[in-house]
Design goal:
about 220 residues; alpha/beta; Rossmann fold; 2 domains; four-stranded parallel beta sheet; 8 helices; about 40% helix
Length: about 220
């Protein structure tokens, strides 16, 4: 498959930052040259679906695709718990006609852990690429053990911006967070992380099976 169109279901809007990462992995591990991503924004529906299996059904209907990514942050849970939750939701959706190759995306703790590795991209996303103040970006070896990587990332972005006072209060943290991955060209450093390794393995397995996804009910 040289071209693939995928849809991403996320925990929240800021997790759109995963799109450049997933696109990179598909090109590296899925051997796909042309990737067309879509984020399943269900917030504007008159009655946004609440359960994950309903979100899956709405997403595949409103954003047709060749491949579905379902994101859940592990947060304080064992990542395996999130995989089981996604699998159970897929079983329920399958009973109602859902059929699509699917890959789970479960960062340990939260997505922000995957944004804490490229200091130049962080500085550029913060609007101060030539800043010299130390940012104390954590080493990749400990990123998955950080209790709240979102707080760590936000503090680093504040420092990277170089802003103070009223200017800092107006700093668009949400937009800067999303921009980080848009400014990264190589996500291979993340291959040291267990959750990222599982994502790559699942995509490689799906490709090996000719993008056929089966789930036992």
């Amino acid at each position: 498959m040289n071209e693939i169109r995928y849809t991403l279901i996320t925990d929240g809007p800021s997790d759109r930052a995963l799109i450049p990462i997933l696109t990179w992995v598909l090109r590296e591990k899925g051997d796909v040259s042309l990737v067309q991503p879509e984020w399943a924004d269900l917030r504007r529906l008159s009655q946004p679906p609440q359960s994950l299996n309903d979100r899956i059904l709405y997403a595949i209907d409103l954003f047709p695709c060749d491949l579905l990514f379902i994101h859940r942050d592990a947060e304080r849970e064992d990542p395996e718990t999130r995989y089981k939750e996604i699998r159970n939701a897929l079983i329920e959706a399958t009973k109602l006609g859902f059929q699509a190759p699917t890959v789970c995306v479960v960062p340990v703790r939260m997505t922000e852990a995957w944004l804490l590795f490229d200091e130049p991209a962080i500085r550029l996303a913060a609007g101060n690429p030539n800043g010299k103040n130390p940012l104390n970006v954590p080493d990749l070896s400990v990123i998955e053990q950080i209790p709240n990587p979102k707080d760590v990332l936000f503090e680093i972005l504040r420092e990277a911006s170089g802003l103070t006072g009223r200017h800092l209060k107006r700093f668009n943290m949400a937009e800067s967070r999303i921009r980080i991955t848009e400014l990264v060209s190589d996500f291979s450093p993340l291959q040291k992380l267990s959750a990222f390794q599982r994502l790559e393995k699942d995509i490689s397995t799906l490709k090996k099976n000719d993008w056929i996804f089966e789930i036992d009910a």
